């Protein structure tokens, strides 16, 4: 009996010394962040290209919707873009013609101003001759010079008005070009929008993983936001719910031994990634209201995220959210 007591005491002491290095729980499960696949436009499903539990790659087409309406919108937007481009080209050509007319009006003004200067000089010479010698200039010559000077001045005024009108036409042409460019930009945006709506007719996988919870079939009419399936990524992790009294020495980076209930012979390793800032009960649908009624202190559980170092690439194993696991964290 004495030896038995000694063995029990020594064994208990050794067990305590060993167990104090670890914190373990079986209140844990595999977890993941799946992609919820849904439609972005309304339409009827024409083809479903994946099956339940099928592995898909990034960009794989999962579901195709009827694209007749989207194709029509795409064609209309393309035609509108071509029309806008033609209007812009027409506005550019019109401006080029108006600019040429303005240049001609400017040249006409220069010619008119030259003629007006000559006529004014001729009239001044006749004025000088009449001052020097009376009767040296006939009345006919005088009348012709005065008329020429007035005509030249009127031509200068008309040419100036023509140049002003041509310049205003150039400004109007610029405004037409700006409007045509805005129309072209709007048409380009409509084409991009139509292309985007057409691309929504093919629902693609945004992540690599396995198809789960598929609820769509050919012939179904779907609307934006309709859940069609989910894709579970290969990169699963563990969410372990430790008692709050087990977190005293738990820190990110500590080594973890992981055992999956479905594969008890498969031993995995991992690391503590993070500890949730709050208990699981605090974020439940009906959190505890300790300030009302009778209160009984209960040890709470806190979710701890644990990353897995390596998952075996073997078709014999299936890893998915909700699968039960047991974990043991080395805290000392």
From TrEMBL:
Gene3D superfamilies, per the entry: 2.40.30.170, 2.40.50.100, Helix hairpin bin
Record localization: Cell envelope
GO biological-process terms attached to the record: transmembrane transport
Superkingdom classification of source: Bacteria
Positions of the Multidrug resistance protein MdtA-like barrel-sandwich hybrid domain: 37-232
Residue ranges occupied by any p-hydroxybenzoic acid efflux pump subunit AaeA-like beta-barrel domain in the UniProt entry: 237-327
GO terms under cellular component: cell envelope
PANTHER family linked to this entry: MEMBRANE FUSION SUBUNIT OF EMRAB-TOLC MULTIDRUG EFFLUX PUMP, MULTIDRUG EXPORT PROTEIN EMRA-RELATED
UniProt protein name: HlyD family secretion protein
Organism this protein belongs to: Horticoccus luteus
Lineage per the UniProt record: Bacteria, Pseudomonadati, Verrucomicrobiota, Opitutia, Opitutales
